[in-house]
Design goal:
Blueprint lengths: L4 E4 L8 H10 L1 E9 L2 E8 L1 H15 L7 E3 L5 H14 L10
Parallel strand pairs: 3-4
Antiparallel strand pairs: 1-2, 2-3
Length: 101
C-alpha cells in the first residue's frame, strides 16, 4: 500500500516559471515541506555542484557544514524534487528526517 503524502513548495514556486528557472540555475531550494500522515518535514534540495560550493564556503567560515533534511538531486527542478520525495516516502526514509515542531 502506498503511503499518502503532500508536497508543499515555497510560495509562488509552482506558478512562477522564472522562479523555477532561477532555482534550477542556482542549484538549491529551501523550504519545501513534506507532510506524511500528521507529521511535517521541511527540506532543502541541492544539486551536487552547488552543495560542494556551499560546503567549501562553510568550511572556510566555520570549519564545518550542517544542514538538516538535506536532499541532493542531480538537478533542482520540480520533477526531480517530486521524484525524490516519492522515493523518500516509498522507502520510509522520511522517518529518519527531523520533524517540524
Amino acid at each position: 500500500m502506498k503511503t499518502e503524502c503532500q508536497i508543499i513548495f515555497p510560495t509562488n514556486y509552482i506558478e512562477d516559471k522564472l522562479l523555477q528557472a532561477e532555482t534550477e540555475a542556482k542549484g538549491y531550494l529551501r523550504g519545501v515541506r513534506l507532510k506524511v500522515g500528521g507529521t511535517s518535514y521541511t527540506l532543502t534540495f541541492y544539486d551536487p555542484v552547488r552543495l560542494l560550493q556551499d560546503i567549501e564556503e562553510e568550511f572556510k567560515l566555520h570549519g564545518f557544514f550542517f544542514e538538516s533534511n538535506l536532499v541532493t538531486i542531480t538537478n533542482v527542478d520540480k520533477k526531480n524534487i517530486i521524484n525524490a520525495l516519492d522515493n523518500i516516502v516509498d522507502t520510509g526514509t522520511y522517518q529518519d528526517m527531523v520533524k517540524d515542531n
